[in-house]
């Protein structure tokens, strides 16, 4: 997901003590961010696994003795859709996390990208 929309540093950046301190994150903000991550974890994992499965199918099609162009292109579409679904789920989480922050914190977060 590195090539997609970036709404902050990668990963659970609010767990980085130095970065969280530089943003002046309050303990209750971090707690809410953790809760949001936990609420979204199952969806993110499921969408990531779906992407892996679609990529695996595409890999198998591309290694077939006889390549079926139509089947391969259809599988590319399924991979692209799975990737888009994962990106949307991740963006949804990141937007929720940003809503826990005040304007000054968001400005500092955006400047760190």
Please describe what this structure looks like.
The protein is mostly helical and 113 residues long. It has a single domain (26-111), classed as Four Helix Bundle (Hemerythrin (Met), subunit A), CATH 1.20.120. The chain has four helices and no strands.
Show the helix and strand layout.
Blueprint: H1 17-23, H2 27-62, H3 69-99, H4 103-111
Helix pairs in contact: 2-3
Quick structural overview:
The chain is an all-alpha fold and 113 residues long. The protein is built from four helices and no strands. The chain has a single domain (26-111), classed as Four Helix Bundle (Hemerythrin (Met), subunit A) (Up-down Bundle), CATH 1.20.120.
Terminus-to-terminus distance: 15 Å
What share of residues is helical?
over 70%
Q: Structural class given helices, strands, pairing?
A: mainly alpha
Count of helix runs: 4
Report the major sheet: none
Number of strands: 0
CATH structural fold name: Four Helix Bundle (Hemerythrin (Met), subunit A)
If you average the pLDDT, what whole number results? Answer: 93
The helix/strand series, from N terminus to C terminus, equals HHHH
Low-confidence stretches: none
Radius of gyration: 18 Å
Number of domains: 1
Net shape: elongated
The first-level CATH class is given as Mainly Alpha
CATH architecture: Up-down Bundle
Task: Please indicate the percent range of residues in DSSP E strands (runs of 2 or more).
Answer: under 5%
């Amino acid at each position: 997901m590195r090539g997609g929309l970036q709404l902050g540093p990668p990963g659970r950046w609010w767990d980085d003590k130095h970065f969280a301190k530089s943003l002046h994150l309050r303990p209750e903000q971090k707690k809410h961010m953790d809760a949001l991550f936990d609420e979204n974890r199952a969806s993110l994992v499921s969408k990531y696994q779906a992407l892996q499965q679609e990529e695996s199918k595409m890999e198998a099609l591309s290694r077939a003795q006889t390549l079926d162009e139509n089947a391969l292109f259809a599988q590319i579409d399924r991979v692209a859709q799975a990737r888009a679904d994962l990106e949307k789920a991740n963006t949804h989480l990141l937007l929720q996390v940003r809503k826990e922050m005040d304007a000054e914190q968001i400005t500092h977060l955006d400047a760190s990208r």
